[in-house]
UniProtKB/TrEMBL annotation:
Source lineage: Bacteria, Pseudomonadati, Bacteroidota, Bacteroidia, Bacteroidales
Pfam families: Flavodoxin_1 (PF00258)
Family: Belongs to the flavodoxin family.
Cofactors required: FMN
UniProt keyword Lipid metabolism, yes or no: no
Keyword Flavoprotein included in the entry's annotation: yes
Natural source organism: Coprobacter tertius
UniProt name for this protein: Flavodoxin
Domain Flavodoxin-like: 4-164
Amino acid sequence: MKKIGIFCDSVNGKTVALSKKIASAFGIGNEDMHNVSEITPENIESYGILLLGTSTGCEGNWHDDWEKAVEILKNMNLTGKTIALFGCGKSQPDGSISCTGIDKLYNELKQTGATLIGELSPDKGSAGTLSEEKKERLPGLAIDEADDDETNEMLVDQWTRTLNYNFNSHL
């Protein structure tokens, strides 16, 4: 299997906590877990699989560090690399915003040459709210911090098992 690196941001620690659960499922050590602000072409080159995690702010925006990171990633040839997205968010009373950060990442990275995997169908219980152009699939694991721990654990387990199958069978 290709080497896996996790890059994520966190405002309140929820995305980092989620990334640790994901890392545990794949046996990824701390040396391969990074803050998104550490993305450079050199450290991206050392990984074949990138697990990218983002929180979603109350306005539906991602963490500021993603602006620079996305520009770096978009300026690289990521052909041959595999990317899976995960994120945390918080539903608003009207249900309009949840994990839109992963939707935004997907839209920014889909033209980089990388293979994007890890999509989920919305009926699997994942918490994402999607943009108009991507209503049929969630672009990754979307955890709503308002959901109970048992639901979130089930979603993480389902997603990591699916990714593990893909990593071992198809990549």
